[in-house]
Each structure stands twice: as structure tokens, then as C-alpha cells.
Give the backbone structure.
Amino acid sequence: MLHDVNFHLRPGSFHFLTGPSGAGKSSLLRMIFMSLQPTRGNLQLFGQDVSRISASRRAQLRRRIGIVFQDFRLLDHLTTWQNVALPLRVVGKRITDYREDVTDLLQWVGLGERINHFPSVLSGGEKQRAAIARAVIGKPELLLADEPTGNVDPQMARRLLRLFIELNRLGTSVVIATHDHQLMRQYKAPRLELQDGHVRTV
């Protein structure tokens, strides 16, 4: 349960979101993504109070956000390549403009041989990497990642962290919810710590 949460993310910032299990990290990310509404107070994204805008406008703002859910949310009827390309397709880009980018990113996250496979035959770690690739392919203004290294080995975790860091260097604000202290030790970034429903920056 979150209580009177109050914090500000500067454009281009990088934060780890920490706290014990059940502290509300996933709920907080869902609120930022506008898929969960706060019971009181307001949420401002990209300079707009999202409690005062239409559902269609919220959908438009979501397109500026990349998100990695713990349950991945890949579409079962699409291949790995099609799932990753989906954010670009939704905004109307031509496949000739992004075909190579999608393929290169899948190679980089170790899914080059799984491009034409459907989610049903992917392992948990492979689904996670596909979900991450989908979240970053459009170079979003804000990236929210919920335990993005939970199902991968330490070497791949380091590789994915480098991907997040590079995206941040290109201007994306990044929030990574994680329990992985080894991951956090590899990159010095402020932490948003959830404790007893409140957030503090450490």
C-alpha cells in the first residue's frame, strides 16, 4: 500500500527503485504508466496532470513510455520479432525503416536464433529479454522496468544494464525496480526506496 508518495523524476535521470517484497514497487510503476489510478493526489507526466486528460490522450502519452512488466505480456500470436517491432508498427513506421534495427537488437540480447519463434516456446529468460527489447526499441522518453534481470544469468544482466545505461545517455529517463544488489553496485545511480508505503531518495 502506497501512502502520500511524492517524488520528481528529472528528464534524462536514472533511478533504481528498491524496497522489500510487497512494498509497492510494481504498483508505483503501474501508476506512472497510467494503468493504475491513484486513489488521491495527482500524477504529472511530461508536464500534464494525467488525472485531467481523456483516455485517448493517456494512450498517446503511454506511447512515449517503454515498460517491462514482470509477466512480460508478449502477444502469443506474434513471433519474437513481431512482438519487439510492435511499438514501431503502432506509431505507423514502415517496416523497411526498422527491420534491421529490430533484428540487430534481438541479436544483441541473445535472441538472434529465436526471432521467428512464438512466446509459447521461449523460456522465461528469453521472454524477459524479448520484453526488454520491445520496451527499448522505440527509444522512449521514459523507461520503466520491473525486475528486468530476474530471469537471466549475471553476464546477461550486465549486458542488459549496459543497454539501459546507453538508452539513458541518449536522453531516456530510466526507472528500474530491482532486488538485485549486485546489479545496483555496478552503476552508481540514485535509489528511490519504498518503505512502509513512502518513497525516499537515497
In short: The mean pLDDT is 92. The helical segments are 25-32, 55-62, 80-90, 95-108, 124-136, 154-169, 181-185. The domain at 14-201 is CATH 3.40.50.300 (Rossmann fold). The CA atoms of residues 20 and 143 lie 22 Å apart.
